[in-house]
Amino acid sequence: MKPPPPDHPNIRAVVAALRAGGAEASGARMRVLPDAVSTARAAAEALGVQVGQIANSLIFEADGQPLLVLASGAHRVDTGKLAAQLGIQAVRRADPKFVRAATGQVIGGVAPLGHPTPLRTVVDTALASYDEVWAAGGIPHAVFPTTYAELVTLTGGTAAAVAEGS
Fold this sequence. Notes:
Helix content is 29%, strand content 23%. It is of the alpha/beta class. A hairpin with a 5-residue loop joins strand 6 and strand 7. The radius of gyration is 15 Å and the shape is globular. The model has no long low-confidence stretch (mean pLDDT 91).
C-alpha cells in the first residue's frame, strides 16, 4: 500500500504547530515512512532506534475529558497512579471515536500536537533519558524527531512518571 503524500492535512497541522511553537526546521524533520508504524515497536524498528525513544501519544478519558499522555514506548501507563497524580477520579483508555473527536487523528498516528484544540498533556519523565525521541506526525506513516524538553514546551505538558511500577 502506498503511503499518504507528505502534504496530508494532519501532517500540515502538526508541522504548523511545530513552527508556531518555535521548533527549528520542523517541516524538514517530518518523515513519511513507506509503511504504517502504528505501534512503538514498529516505529522503533523502522527508525533503527530503541523502543523507549518512541513517544507514544495515548489518549485517555479523564473524568470525561481528553487527556494526552506522551509515554515512552518501553512501558505501559499506570492509569491509577496517573489519576492520583492529577487529582482525577477516573482515567481510562479512550475508544477510537473519542480519540478522533479529540485529536482529528486516528489511533496509531496521533501526534503530540496539531489537534483542533489544545489537550491537557502529561509527558513521561522516562523520555528525558534519551537525547532524541520520536513522535507520530498525525498519521500512522509519519514521524518526527524531537527532545523531551521540546515535547514538554511545545505541548505545555506536565512532566510525570507514568509507568507501571515506577
